[in-house]
Amino acid sequence: MLTVALSKGRLLEPTVDFLRRAGIEVPEDILSSRRLLAPDSTGSYKFLLVKPTDLPTYVEYGVAATGICGRDVLLEVTPDLHQPLDLGFGRCTLVLAGKGGGRRENHNLLSTTRVATKYPRITERFFRSRGLPAEVIYLSGSVELAPNLGLAETIMDLVETGRTLRENGLVVLEEVAESTARVVVNRASFHIQQAEVQEFLRRLRKVLE
Question: Which residues face 46 on adjacent strands?
Fold first, then answer.
């Protein structure tokens, strides 16, 4: 039996849809049930539902052999995992945003001192690579509020349509990275459960063809 970790939240429904299109039987109630462990009826797969930021840890430590999560999480956590497939769905952009105006004002915001974000490591690397000082303030949600309440001048956040930014009077100052759903595989499981892992990947690749 192959244990597959799935990200709870925005990626769960499209992930389940993709797996079913690949011919992988996912329990019917997986989207509505409170169960965090959900085996399929064939005995081939066991699905583990976890927080997106925890998923790489579960796979890296071998609790799950493989999993599906956003590239944004992998850029933040930087786990030691195989990343064999980009599944292409769940597309978002990680951006630096603020209450911008003209070009000069936007340039000043890039040289800001305080940035609110759910992605502290990515943010620190971004500013360090540009030789700019920044105080990174970690927030677990509602990051868009920070500039309006004076907590930070800018934010680093994941956006899909940009609507939430606009509704909070923010503009994109710079696009930092693209994020889509990625398959990750534990390095030991890649060899120990080679047949099961390769069959899982084969089914996913068929959908991408």
Answer: 3, 39
26: pLDDT strictly greater than 80: yes
Q: Say yes or no: 34 and 60 in one domain.
A: yes
Distance CA 30, CA 49 (A): 9
Q: Is the dihedral of CA 73, 79, 81, 84 positive or negative?
A: positive
Domain holding 138, by residue range, is 92-178
Q: What is the value of pTM for the model shown?
A: 0.90
The reply to whether 40 and 85 lie within a common domain is: yes
Q: Which CATH number does the domain housing residue 131 bear? A: 3.40.190.10
Answer whether 144's CB lies under 8 Å from 164's CB: yes
Residues 6+ apart with CB under 8 A from 27: 33, 38, 39, 40, 41, 47
pLDDT per residue as tens digits for the range 124-160: 999 999 888 899 999 998 999 999 999 999 999 999 9
